[in-house]
Fold:
Amino acid sequence: MGSSGQGQSNFDLSFKILLIGDSGVGKSSLLVSFISNAVDDLAPTIGVDFKIKLFTVGGKKLKLTIWDTAGQERFRTLTSSYYRGAQGIVLVYDVTRRDTFTNLSDVWAKEVELYSTNQDCIKMLVGNKVDRESERVVSREEGISLAKEFGCLYLECSARTRENVERCFEELALKIMEVPSLLEEGSTVGKRNILKQKQEQHTPPAGSCCS
Amino acid sequence: MLSFTGMHELLAPLLYVLNVDLERISEARKAYEDQFTENFDGFSFHENDLTYKFEFKKFSEYAEDGTGKEKVSVKASSLSELDSMTQTIALLSDAYGAEGELGIVVSEKFMEHDAYSMFDALMSGAGGAVAMADFFSTPFGTSHNVFPPVIEASSALYHLLSVVDLPLHNHLVELGIEPQYFALRWLRLLFGREFSLEILLVIWDEIFSRENNIFKKPADNDAESNFGVLDSPRGAFISAMAVSMILYLRSSLLASENATTCLQRLLNFPDDVNLVKLTEKAKSLQILAVDENNSTSLSYHQWLHEGSKLGITRAHSLSLDSTSPRTPLNIVPESYWEEKWRVFHKEEDNKQHDVEKQVPNHRKGWSEKVRLRLSRTESDPSPSKVDRKKAPKPSVRRNLLEDLVQQLGLDEDADIIQCNEDINYDPVEVNRQDVTQDSESAESEEISLNFSDSPSPTHGVNDHGNESESSVGSNLCIDENDPESNNSESCGTNPECSPLPVSNSRDVTALKCAQNDDSVRKSATDMKERKLLSGTLQWLWKFGRNKSEETSKVAAASEDEKALNGQSGQSNVADSTADGCDSSSGTCSEEAVDRNLMLNFRNLGQSMLENIQVIESVFQQDSGQVGPLDNTSKNSLIGKGQVTAMTALKELRNISNLLSEM
Structure:
């Protein structure tokens, strides 16, 4: 698995994006397709994987840290920490499998509500595998209406053909930048402060116990 | 609830190995047909057949091949010209089976069976500590404080890392990298995705060549043994391997300033890995992991560290690991109080002249605490604790002495008591009181802590009492460098003591038990006062104790310092006896301790309240009484002291209220 940018290069904003959805809907494929342009058959994700993508949207250099989660992991103790600090959440379903679509509203939307620490975080509904049009069982209209219901963005894409893949992350990033609080979080200054605070919090116990 | 994703990735290498074995055997059989048939006659097949069948089915590692070869090669001289691998194959094949030569050990017919057995053994752990299925399971729909085993195991990795390389551990923690982010995949697939198959098989060989038996820990069942993963040699090696992998990336991890970069490195382990370096490190870490598992010396601050940051492991293990009781939640406060206590002692040190004597006394106080902690947690001492535990305890001795005095007659002259005590403590006559106070205050700090925690530690207090009684004799021997016990020493130096019969010691201990309960409660509250009034502290302590008994009021007012000291001890004992009389039935009768304990506490709390009322009335009515005391006391007490004393007493009242509510 090739790692992209090392994160040390210059960027104006840094966001954390989380990919969720049933297993097999193509979260990892979507991500790999976005990062490396290559489309391979991938082994199921165990736990979580991470990718970093640097790209420019709206004149801003962005660093997206994308957390690719495993569809099976549906127990809070494991997954709840993934949601921490995410500015964008992509809910992925497979347009050829209705259950993956219904699970979005039955399971995943609830998870987001429960564990997302960010009230303003941008959600996006993504129907994957539109290249298999003949097998489609979830119509575009259904997707749009669910997206409306959740109040989130909507796109249909194909990780295989790379149709709409980049657009998906671009739209999400643009939307995140529209929200002042998220923009604040994403700015490097804010990030450093958070880090500093964290360190300060952690230092006292470490110091006292080492003595 | 099980999540099956990835399980097939555990099965795949097993199938691969079985396949390779099969291929090699058939190759060898073709090439050395003679050897295979020739050796057929020279064996007792029954034994070998069973052994190999069993072993191979269960583990089928190269390691097993190795042991098999060693066992058999002694008998096989004719094979010696062949290379070892072929020898092994040939010899293993001699166990006859369904197909005559190769039999059931490695047979295409039984490959599915073998694969199943192996996979099953791997997943279930065959009764051992590491059952891979655990890493896939999650408590379903349970509350927040129950965590999947894989999370616990991940925390174990971080714990081991923190022991080995604290800076790296802290770096990862500071970046907010939770161990399960990467360890989940490492553990579930047993590093299957981190290495190429050739490397993986070597690592698996290392893993499976270690036994999976759960460690027997009769003595060291303490805080650190709660990581279930570390509870077998195999588990320890798995953790060690993971930590070794983290350490392998050490410099690049420390170099990266953000979490994602670190995680990327951890989740994209380099292909061109130095396997020898990695496994050698893991082997050395395994020893450490086991050691760490068995020792507690380092554990507390680590544990605190992890607990505060991850917030996961502690609650989880506490709720889950009923079989391995960990040090209870008061670890954090304990270390806090230890700190406080040390600072407190330093201040006292400055005041005192005889430093040499003081230092051992400190240790004694410490030993009290350790003992207390030990008895409370009901865990056996680790090596570090053991030697501390051996250190004698002054307060116990002093209490015992007072009890002895009490036994010998309350009418005895205070000077004699003092003299008696002087003989034992002569180098620190002046300091003695302080020292014992200190150690007691430290003790009581802890105890007061416990009281607010939960009712359960009260058993610990009682245990402590009982425990210290039982070991008083030996402790004293060590302390005094005297072959004789303290009792006999007292007898030698003080004629009045000589009639002390051995049978008395039972009563003494019984009394002490009661007194301990009582004084513990008092000092728990007194402690706060002492903290408030560092200067007048000693006086107040004495005074508070004195005033606890109505009877001592007059005496305290009229006698000089020495007498006061003696009286203080004496009357304190008297009080204890009184209290002990009604409480001893509960506290000292070996059975039904638990049941009566709470009742007694309530009673004692109420009696404390009464005592406090007396003190208050004394203060208000008879302020003149302070005068003589003031003059004789080492520290002068002025009106200001009275006010503070009053506030302290209020505190005392609050605590006793709390106690009586318990």
Notes: Chain B touches chain A through 49 residues (CB under 8 Å).
